[in-house]
Structure prediction request, 421 residues.
Amino acid sequence: MEALELLVRNTSEVLTLEGTHRERAEDALTPRPGACVGVRDGVIAFVGPEAQLPAGAVGAGTTVLDAQGGFVGPGFVDPHTHLVFAGERSAEFDLRNQGATYLEIAKAGGGIVGTVRATRAASEDELIQLALPRLRRLLSHGVTVAEVKSGYGLDVENELKMLRVVRRLGALTPVELVPTLLCAHAVPEEYKGRREDYVRLCIDEILPAVAREGLARFCDVFVEDSAFTVDEGRRILTAARALGLVPRLHADQLTALGASELAAELGAATADHLEQVTDAGLRALAAANVTAVLVPTSTLFLRMRPYAPGRRIRDAGLNIALGSNVNPGSAMSENVALVLGLACLENGLSAAEAYWAATRGAALSLGLQRQGRLAVGDPGDLVSFSCASYRHLPYHLGIGHARTVVKAGRVVARQELDSCG
Ligand code: NIG
Prediction:
């Protein structure tokens, strides 16, 4: 065997995630007790007992990583972020903690449009400098792929600016970025009383400009009282699909308006949030095989109830993906460990279901067939954790356990962490 570039040894187990969401999550994680993992040319070349490593696998150029008895799994995939933005909204956080609601703040002229003002005023370079530390924090939690939305530009120039920033960021961070156009995040202030004109701007100008430059893979719409109606969402996403962008939706976050049903009708890749999803919405999503993206940090952060009914969603047979939803308004946190903890405590998922949803389930939601998995031939994106079992990630609430993060066979983040669990 040609020498490996990286060998990770001395693990408690390696989770290769070779199952599907239709089976028991514990089985879908496909644990390999005591296995080691080898990477060559950036892809997984070996998973198995060290005794079965072919001759010549370890050479002078092989980096050998001691997992110190911790478990190893694929890099986390974060399927829902708004991590490019300027400004901050800690005053709104304070107001909400004293009783104001997200919708009240939005209706009073705060919320998303406040971040739009700050983001429009920032240059591409400034937005990059602001986003890089957020990406480093995600990386330190083990995230190796992240979706990133626009949505704080809300005009042709600034939506393009945000997506160009995402493209440039992709070359500056080890985290692989998947761009989403979210021009339908809010009706911008200058279109107050003229919402139809803004919908037309999205369809006639923003979407074609983004498609021409190939700047986004997905198009998202926030269907909500304070944002867009189901009918507007349908028109925007139908136009997006005709341009080759894959539809996804912010659905049933604060109000059940029929966004899940729309996601099903359009064959959207995902319906995100789902705190208020109805039984009919859930049935429609299941029938159309739409992935449910749960973002429980924002439910906590907005002090909303209920949390998305993760248990019912899973039992209805949907694939689930878990995201951080990093953004300045509803989830100012890059803590993936907290996401996993809340998914168990509040969405009712098992530790194995949550781990699936943060890795393989999330990769599939982004149409990434080889990520979030460690089969031979998959990308060499992996995390060596400081605990022996994935069960400790949600259990040791909010504590990061990603000791070493590897992207395409290269160590890209490392921290000294005591072993635990
Ligand atoms: O996913 N709900 C809409 N978008 C974000 C919040 C964005 C903001 O408040 O700035 C979310 O929660």
In short: The longest strand covers residues 176-184. Residues 82, 111-112, 115, 222, 250, 253, 298, 325, 327-330 surround N-(iminomethyl)-L-glutamic acid (CB under 6 Å). The chain has a mean pLDDT of 97. The chain has two domains: 6-74+372-414, 77-365.
